[in-house]
Specification:
By secondary structure, the chain is of the alpha/beta class. The protein has two domains: 7-158 and 332-348, Rossmann fold, CATH 3.40.50; 159-329, Rossmann fold (3-Layer(aba) Sandwich), CATH 3.40.50. It has helices at 17-25, 80-98, 168-172, 190-201, 221-232, 248-255, 283-287, 301-309, 313-348; strands spanning 7-13, 40-46, 49-55, 70-76, 104-110, 131-137, 148-151, 177-184, 208-212, 234-239, 259-263, 293-295. The strands form two sheets. The chain has a seven-stranded mixed sheet, sandwiched between helices. Strands 9-8-10-11-12 form a five-stranded parallel sheet, with helices on both faces. Helix 6 (248-255) links the parallel strand 10 and strand 11 (259-263). The model is unreliable at 1-6 (pLDDT under 50).
Length: 351
């Protein structure tokens, strides 16, 4: 029987969601500090739980420490090429389970933005596979808080979004812009409606607005600084739906105490085909009572901006404090729930 005082996990990083989990949620260190290194690792003890983390392009299927008995794989299942690489990890892990070199496996999965994730189902324990716990990004009818849990998308660590420590200027300084939107405007989308309302109402004179016609995956020094300055200098961050309602912008705005104004509309796909989820995206954030401004149409924006213009700086400071404290508590609660779920699932089955 394993020592119940310690749960020893190797968390294998396959893509940037792992950095959000490790650095932003678990608050773990990484060595070397150079984020271009091919191999990085960190160790952390949370209560009676020891966790090791491995990341980098040199971490490929075929490596596990001989000490690893409980493993959390962090996988990307957003598109076909990523799914192929993820299944290589799962197949290798299965051989270790069959050879009794591993006891337990959990998966944190960046799912499809349309929630087409059926490829992972055969690997779940309940379907005869070996994955005992699945943490899934994006709303899903699979979420049952038994063996499938929802996980937040988080910040874009692949664009090197850092952990932001609240400072006096971040909380107390006057911000010159009422709102911001920096992003891609897709054809025939609500983002076009948003831009039309911004132009019609003259909100581009009050807000930091910088649209683009094509998505740009790579960050330049200029675009990095511009985006962070916009979050820091705006009291509201406009968050229109993209392919999915949930986006990095929501969490990045929270990091700066800028209130997300979220278009609360379910997008196309299999993310909400039940009575619980049908017209209710962002279930995880809502279950934690996120203090955001949720809207059904961007036609509501002018009234929201008018209300902003009438708020005092002191009122805005108090609201920033609420957002920053909520985000801190949100990450802390996720951290504890993540660890406790693994301990309960893994250790209970070893008794």
């Amino acid at each position: 029987m394993p020592n119940e005082e310690f749960l020893y996990n190797f968390i294998l990083f396959i893509f940037s969601l792992g950095h959000f989990l490790w650095q932003h949620i678990l608050e773990g260190p990484l060595e070397p500090a150079d984020d271009t290194a091919h191999w990085r690792e960190g160790k952390l003890q949370i209560g009676t739980t020891d966790i090791s983390f491995i990341t980098g392009p040199a971490v490929v299927p075929g490596y596990f420490s001989v000490e690893a008995q409980n493993v959390v794989l962090i996988l990307n299942g957003r598109e076909e090429g990523k799914i192929s690489f993820a299944t290589q990890w799962l197949h290798y892990t299965q051989t270790l389970i069959e050879n009794h070199k591993l006891r337990h496996v959990a998966v944190v999965l960046l799912g499809s933005e349309h929630c087409h994730n059926n490829w992972i189902l055969p690997y779940l324990k309940r379907n005869g596979g070996f994955v005992e716990v699945l943490y899934l990004v994006y709303d899903s009818t699979w979420i049952n808080d038994s063996d499938v849990y929802q996980w937040p998308l988080g910040v874009a660590t692949y664009r090197n979004f850092p952990v932001i420590d609240p400072s006096w200027p971040l909380v107390h300084d006057s911000r010159p812009y009422l709102c911001n939107f920096l992003g891609t405007v897709y054809g025939n989308s609500s983002r076009e409606i948003l831009m039309e309302i911004i132009r019609k109402e003259g909100l581009d004179q009050l807000c930091w607005i910088s649209p683009r016609n094509e998505w740009q995956p790579q960050e330049t020094n200029e675009s990095y600084k511009s985006y962070h300055d916009a979050l820091l200098q705006s009291d509201l961050t406009l968050s229109p739906v993209g392919v999915n309602t949930e986006c990095y912008r929501i969490y990045e705005a929270c990091s700066y105490g800028s209130v997300p104004v979220v278009e609360d509309v379910m997008t196309q796909g299999n993310c909400g085909n039940s009575s619980v989820h049908s017209n209710a995206p962002l279930q995880l954030l809502k279950s934690y009572s996120a203090p955001f401004i949720f809207i059904k149409s961007w036609k509501e924006l002018p009234a929201i901006i008018n209300q902003e213009r009438n708020m005092s700086l002191q009122e805005k400071i108090q609201r920033r404090k609420r957002i920053l404290e909520w985000y801190r508590q949100f990450k802390l609660k996720l951290k504890h729930k993540f660890i406790e779920t693994l301990k309960k699932t893994f250790l209970h089955k070893d008794k």
